[in-house]
Design brief:
A hairpin with a 5-residue loop joins strand 3 (53-58) and strand 4. This protein has helices spanning 15-19, 75-97, 101-131, 136-205, 220-239, and strands spanning 29-33, 36-42, 53-58, 64-66. It has a four-stranded antiparallel β-sheet, with helices on one face. It is 60% helix and 9% strand. The two termini are 63 Å apart. The protein is an alpha+beta fold and 247 residues long.
C-alpha cells in the first residue's frame, strides 16, 4: 500500500513534487518544477512536540495554496513568518526581565530550537526568492525572515551573556561569603586562644576562689554578671565582619 503524502490530494502539483515526499514533509526546503514552486516550512517549535510542517504552493500564474489555509494569495505564508515575530518578541521581553540563572537557562532552552528553525526558514525563503525573482511579495517575506534570524541571534547572545554574568556574580558572592567566614573564624580563634590558658589552668588546679560575690545581694549579683557577659558577647559580635549577600 502506498504511503500517504503530506501534499493534499486535491493539489494538482507536478508529479516530481509528490515523488520527492515520503510519509512526512521532512526538513525545510524548496522544490521547483515547470514554473511551480513548493515551499516546506516548520511551525514555531514547541517543547516535546515534533516539528509541524506547512506547505505553500505557488502556481505559475502567481496564485498560492497553503496547507491548513483557504487563502489563494501569499498572505498565509506571510502570517506564518509573523508567528515567529510574535515568538521572538515574547522571548525578548522575558530576556529584559531575566535575573536568575534558571530564567536565563529557560530562555536559552527555548531559543535554541527556535534559532535552528529560523536559520533554516531564512535560507529556504532566500532560495525561493532566487527562484522567483519577479515576486515582490516573496522578497518582503524573505526580508522579514532574515530580520527574525538576526533577532534570534541577538537573543541567543544576550541570554548566554546573562547566564555567564549570573554565574560569575554568584561565584563572586560565594567568595565574599567564604572570606567572611574565614575572618570570623580567625577572630574567634584569637579570642579562644587568649582565654584558653586561663580556663585550662583553672580547670587543672581546681581553682575556686571566693570573690565575695557569692552571697552579696544574691541573686541580683548573679544576673548582673550574666548581663555583663552578654554585653561582652555583643561587643565581640560587632567586631566580626558583616556577612555579604549571596543572591
Amino acid at each position: 500500500m502506498a504511503l500517504s503524502s503530506p501534499i493534499p490530494h486535491n493539489w494538482e502539483v507536478p508529479t516530481v513534487f509528490r515523488d520527492r515526499f515520503g510519509a512526512r514533509a521532512g526538513r525545510q526546503r524548496v522544490m521547483s518544477a515547470d514554473g511551480h514552486l513548493m515551499i516546506i516550512l516548520h511551525d514555531v517549535p514547541r517543547s516535546n512536540v515534533d516539528p509541524v510542517a506547512r506547505l505553500y504552493w505557488r502556481r505559475p500564474d502567481g496564485s498560492w495554496k497553503s496547507s491548513g489555509s483557504s487563502a489563494t494569495n501569499i498572505n498565509a505564508l506571510r502570517a506564518h513568518v509573523d508567528e515567529f515575530v510574535t515568538a521572538i518578541d515574547e522571548l525578548e521581553m522575558r530576556a529584559t526581565r531575566a535575573v536568575l540563572a534558571k530564567e536565563w537557562f529557560a530562555i536559552m532552552h527555548e531559543v535554541s530550537p527556535l534559532h535552528r528553525t529560523v536559520l533554516a526558514q531564512s535560507a529556504t525563503l532566500q532560495e525561493a526568492r532566487d527562484l522567483m525573482k519577479d515576486d515582490r511579495d516573496l522578497i518582503s517575506i524573505r526580508d522579514s525572515a532574515q530580520e527574525n534570524e538576526r533577532a534570534v541571534e541577538l537573543i541567543t547572545t544576550h541570554a548566554r551573556a546573562g547566564l555567564d554574568y549570573t554565574i560569575a556574580q554568584a561565584a563572586e558572592n560565594n567568595a565574599h561569603a567564604t572570606e567572611h567566614v574565614v575572618q570570623s573564624q580567625h577572630r574567634l580563634n584569637l579570642i579562644a586562644a587568649t582565654f584558653l590558658p586561663l580556663s585550662a589552668l583553672g580547670a587543672l588546679l581546681g581553682s575556686n576562689l571566693e570573690s565575695g560575690l557569692e552571697r552579696w545581694n544574691a541573686p541580683y549579683a548573679f544576673w548582673v554578671v550574666m548581663a555583663a557577659a552578654l554585653l561582652i558577647g555583643i561587643i565581640v559580635r560587632t567586631t566580626l565582619p558583616n556577612a555579604k549577600p549571596t543572591s
